[in-house]
Each structure stands twice: as C-alpha cells, then as structure tokens.
Amino acid sequence: MEINSLKPKDRLIEAIHKNDIGAVESIITQHPELLNEPLPRVDGGAALSLAAQCNNLEMVKVLVQLGPKDLQQALSRASMRAHREVSEYLVQKGADPNGLYSDTAIHYGPVILAACEALNPDGIRLMIDLGADPNVKYRTSHGYINSPIGFILGAYARNPHNKHECLEVLFNSGVPFEDTPLMAFHRGRIDLLEKHLHNDPNLVHQRFQSEDIYRPEMGFSKAMALTPIEGTTLLHLALEYDEFEIAKWLIDHGADVNARADIDSNGCGGHTPLFHAVVSIVSPTDKRTRFLLVHGADPTVRATIRHPEGGWDELADKVFENVTALEYALLFKDGPSWCNRDSISVLSNLG
C-alpha cells in the first residue's frame, strides 16, 4: 500500500519506521494533534516514543524540538532496548533516569524497570550509567513495591542467560543479595547451590513458597507463572524457568522427577515438575518434557490445580480437578504461546 493512501496516523507510523524525517515533519505540521497521539506497540507512547524505540536519533532530535509530552516514556522505550545514543540525548533534553516510566506510570515505577522487565542487561547497564538507582524500591499506587531486582526475578520471559546477567549487573552495582539457595538458583550459580547443599543435604527435596521465591519486600509480589509455584521444589522451578543445567545438577544429586508440590487446605496442589514443562509462559519447546521423561517422569500422575494469580487472567482462580499434565496443557490450547503444543504431541504419542 502506498504511504499516501493511508490515514494520517498510519502514515506517521509508517514514516517513523522508514526513518523518513521529512514525511514525519510534514504529517505533524498538517496534523499537530498527532504529535501526542498514542501509537500502538509503544505502551501508550506517541511519535517520540516510537522513534526512540526504533533507534532513529535524528528523528528523535526533530521531534523533541516540537515539544512532545512523552519525553519520559521515550527514554523508557529506548533504554529497554539499550539504544545508548538516543537515551543519552533524551536525558540531555530533560528526561529523568530516576523518573517514572511515563508521566502517569504511578502503578509501575521508574524507567529502569523497563529494561529489567525485558531482561536486557545492556539496557540496565545503560540506565545505571545515566544515573538510575539500581536499588530503588518504588511503592506503586496499588501499594506494591516494585524494584529492579524484583522485576528481574518475576519477569514473564524465560531467558535464563539474560536473567543471570541482569542480576550480575545489579550485584556488581552494589545491590545487596541474600545468601540463600533461591537467590543462587535465580543467579544460575550452581557453585553456590553446592555450598547450600553441603549445609543442608535435604535441599533438593525441600518445598518453597512464593514469598521465599520472589521476596515481596525486595520488590515483587506476584509470580508470572501458569502452573502454581507454591510448595514446589527446586526441580519444579528449574523446569518453570528453563534452568536446564540446574535441573541436571538437581537430578544428579537425588532430586525426585516425580516430586509432588504441597497440597493446600483446599486440596489443590500435588503436581509434578512435568506440569511446568508442558505449560510455561512464552517457551514453546518439548525439550523440558523429553528431558523429564528420559529421567523417569510419570505422565499419568494426576493433580488438582488452582490456576495462579498472575497467569492467564481468563482462568484466574479456576480449579482443574484430577488432571494429568497432558490434560492440563490442553486447557491452554487457545492461550497466547502458553500451551506447549510440541510437548502435547510428545505426551499424546506415548500411548
């Protein structure tokens, strides 16, 4: 479609993506209201935010001169992708590295959280270089505490390599870390887990609660998980977060691949690590399922699961009674990248 045949807002978006500065200037001159019109895929930001996200420095400079209202959000969109020159320029023009993600983000918190949520270690480094506080604890309008370390621990993405590096960036910037097995787990530090196992030989069998895993006082209170993490073992968590090296280490040290999560007072729980393998946020692979089956996972185990808060909103608090891992996975077949279809095929073909 020719750009001139589009509506003005769509023409603006197209011009920004093409880095066509002349077209952007012309469109905003004819339609000045579009300068601050929210655009898609920039979380409510406008033209400047999109140009910053696209790393179009010269266009950012032109738009800043027009007096946009989304200077702060533009910094968030640039820094979460580690666009250094654009971020530095925006700070020079008044964006605050310690300010909110956007001028109205009282429910979210400061700019640095965007790179933490995206698990972008370079973005976090950039924000710290620009003066952001890596140890900030922001109390939201809802009363929660949000922090860089909390956002990394609770991120919905399953990218252990980036998660480990993000945490090391914070650690090397002076953020204090607790010396616990779960923090060693989050950091991917098997060497530290070895020390904890030496002190507590029962570690591989121990059950943990969500407040142990995420530590609300550190800045995150809700698990981004589709399978409950309450009362689970480190092996459950390793499968939930794609920590394969830790999973192998745990099994080598006696972890039970069919260990059941604790059952609560309402009779919910009892699921094994396999349930985490077949339903996991944005992690479509059968690798976890095959790994567990090779090590003796029993696909016939049944459990009653209450869908956790922080998972799929449409299923929040719904109870699924006496389901196998396969039956549980099939409940998510219409979910956005949550139902692990490759794993479903593996389990379906077991006969």
TrEMBL record:
Transmembrane residue ranges: none
Pfam families xref list: Ank_2
Ranges occupied by ANK repeats:
230-262
Gene3D superfamilies in UniProt: Ankyrin repeat-containing domain (1.25.40.20)
State the UniProt keywords alphabetically: ANK repeat, Repeat
Q: Which SMART domains match?
A: ANK
Q: Which residues form the signal peptide?
A: none
PROSITE patterns (alphabetical)? ANK_REP_REGION, ANK_REPEAT
Name the record gives this protein: Ankyrin repeat domain-containing protein
User: To which species is this protein native?
Assistant: Paenibacillus solisilvae
- According to the entry, what is the taxonomic lineage of the organism? Bacteria, Bacillati, Bacillota, Bacilli, Bacillales
